[in-house]
From TrEMBL:
It comes from Cynara cardunculus var. scolymus (Globe artichoke). Pfam families: 2OG-FeII_Oxy. This is Oxoglutarate/iron-dependent dioxygenase. The keyword Oxidoreductase applies. GO terms for molecular function: dioxygenase activity.
Length: 185
């Protein structure tokens, strides 16, 4: 797992680097911060569920990091993403990894890159496994917009973002996410 996490860290940073460069800015300071011990691997296991497909394996959500690299199960499937107001299945491809933009990248890019909503449905017969690597900055790093003057989000730290999510989950039962940090007009 350590080896895998190391390889994903390198890959995630190089993909993030390309996306940052495409925004026409120099590589962000936060890239060095993403060496932080806040990055993590999540190993998901979805047991078979006879009452599928009404049951979620994972409820609809966006990832709260910069960038996620997902190795989904090679056969079972179940991952879906929201595209043009419709859920679209992400077909398993044994030769491909799935890359998700997270909330922090959306904030940093001022909505140029979108943190895509996704969910997992369970399978009636087959168990499914996936491994997700989350590229995160240190809790103290400020996530400001790369084009500061026209920023639609307030500047916030990753630590603030995480604790806001925890409060919202406690108070409302779900994550509110980026809308909390919109600059009020
Ligand atoms: C996640 C996630 C998808 C999957 O862990 O945040 O979206 O296919 N996982 O397990
Ligand atoms: Ni996710």
């Amino acid at each position: 797992m350590q080896e895998y996490a190391g390889a994903m860290q390198e890959l995630a940073k190089s993909i993030a680097g390309v996306l940052v460069t495409n925004m026409g800015v120099k590589r962000g300071l936060w890239e060095d911060d993403c060496n932080a011990g806040t990055c993590f691997l999540r190993l998901n296991r979805y047991p078979p569920c006879p009452i599928s497909p009404e049951v979620f394996g994972l409820v609809p959500h966006t990832d709260s990091d910069f960038l996620t690299i997902l190795h989904q199960d090679e056969h079972v499937g179940g991952l879906q993403l929201m595209k043009d107001s419709k859920w679209v299945a992400v077909k398993p491809n044994p030769d491909a990894l799935v890359v998700n933009i997270g909330d922090l990248f959306q904030a940093w890019s001022n909505d140029v890159y979108k943190s895509v909503e996704h969910k997992v449905t369970v399978n009636r017969e087959a168990e499914r496994h996936s491994i997700a690597y989350f590229l995160c900055p240190s809790y103290e790093s400020f996530i400001g917009c790369c084009k500061e003057e026209s920023s639609i989000y307030k500047k916030f730290t990753f630590g603030e973002y995480r604790s806001q999510i925890q409060h919202d989950v406690k108070d409302y039962g779900h994550k509110v996410g980026l809308p909390r940090f919109l600059v009020s007009t």
